[in-house]
Write a structure and sequence with these properties.
The structure is a single chain. Helix 2 (19-28) packs antiparallel against helix 3 (30-39) and helix 8 runs antiparallel to helix 9. The protein is of the alpha/beta class and 300 residues long. A ten-stranded mixed beta sheet has the order 3-2-1-4-5-10-9-6-7-8. The chain has helices at 12-15, 19-28, 30-39, 51-59, 84-92, 112-115, 125-133, 168-176, 178-187, 199-209, 232-242, 258-264, 274-280, 293-299; strands at 6-10, 70-76, 100-102, 119-122, 138-141, 154-158, 219-225, 248-251, 268-271, 286-288. Strand 2, helix 5 (84-92) and strand 3 form a beta-alpha-beta unit. The protein has two domains: 6-141, Rossmann fold (3-Layer(aba) Sandwich), CATH 3.40.50; 154-299, HAD superfamily/HAD-like (Rossmann fold, 3-Layer(aba) Sandwich), CATH 3.40.50.1000.
Length: 300
């Protein structure tokens, strides 16, 4: 029986640096943008924030080319005509992406379930918000790692509440403070937290890890959370109930996350709070997950 692949959807601006052409789109309009892309379609695009992550994801397939475990697809607001430059650049950089949706200015998030994608990574915050609202894991990538990653192993770090878990407990913290949050987590320690938007993505990563029982896994995961004891117990029991292993768990009790993510060697870190993402972005690639009560407070 064929194994289920991990499928990642990326936007063209997450994969390549399209700042110049995007500036033309914003200042001169769609026609000027289309003309520019066609005139420059033989010019190779430079890597974007998500480039290294995509390369490391696809490198997992090199372990067993006959049984690829990962697929990356492109979701782009370009038209197929203006998107020719993107595929020329994909070919130049030897990135194994063969499937794509070009939507000519419309948000492409509706194609996430059709492709079976476990994650949508974009630089367009509006597209990401729409994808999350529709129930899909999505994040706005805000920064990129060094082009010379320290390890061939793919290292992915997650915040807990509002990312891997629901914002149920975060709501108590935001509305009633730390003391009530801690009391609730102690009282509910044996009751698993509901899943958040990235539970399915973590589960898909875990399935790949399980393929490597007798050899080192090409993926290492970490939970990096502001929680501290005694609020740690519910997290541990939740992951146990989900039958998902996470390789490292850092309970920081409110300490800044950036240095710890650097020590872990994260290729990307997902967090629901922009402040945490900005701190992390000084050290590693950071991606904002605009989900849960903190982001509702910002938009209201």
């Amino acid at each position: 029986m064929a194994k289920q692949k991990l499928v990642i959807a990326v936007s063209s601006r997450a994969l390549f640096n399209l700042d110049e052409s995007h500036h033309i789109f914003e200042t001169e309009g769609k026609e000027a943008f289309c003309r520019y892309q066609i005139e420059h379609e033989d010019e190779v695009l430079l890597p974007g924030y998500g480039y290294t992550l995509v390369k490391k994801l696809l490198a997992i397939n090199d372990i067993n080319p006959e049984n690829p475990l990962v697929e990356v697809i492109l979701l782009s607001q370009n038209s197929a005509d203006t998107g020719l430059r993107i595929f020329n650049s994909i070919d130049h950089h030897k990135i194994n992406i063969t499937r794509a949706a070009f939507t000519s200015g419309a948000s492409p998030y509706g194609y996430i379930p059709a492709f079976g994608a476990h994650l949508f990574l974009s630089t367009n915050a509006d597209d990401v918000a729409k994808a999350l609202a529709a129930g899909y894991a999505a994040a706005t990538i805000l920064s990129g790692p060094s082009m010379n990653p320290s390890s061939e192993q793919l290292r992915i770090a997650f915040d807990g509440d509002s990312v891997l878990f629901s914002d149920e407990s975060e709501r108590i913290y935001q509305q009633k403070g730390l003391a009530e949050f801690t009391k609730n987590e102690r009282d509910e320690a044996k009751n698993p937290l509901p899943g958040g938007p990235f539970k399915g993505f973590l589960s898909a990563l875990h399935r790949i890890q399980n393929e490597f029982v007798t050899e080192p896994s090409p993926i290492r995961t970490a939970l990096v959370t502001a929680r501290a004891a005694p609020a740690h117990e519910r997290v541990v029991r939740t992951l146990r109930a989900w039958q998902i292993r996470i390789d490292e768990a850092l309970f920081l009790g409110g300490m800044s996350k950036g240095e710890f993510l650097k020590a872990f060697g994260a290729d990307i870190f997902f967090d629901d709070q922009t402040g945490h993402c900005q701190s992390a972005a000084q050290h590693v690639a950071a991606a904002h997950v605009p989900h849960g009560i903190v982001n509702q407070q910002i938009t209201n």
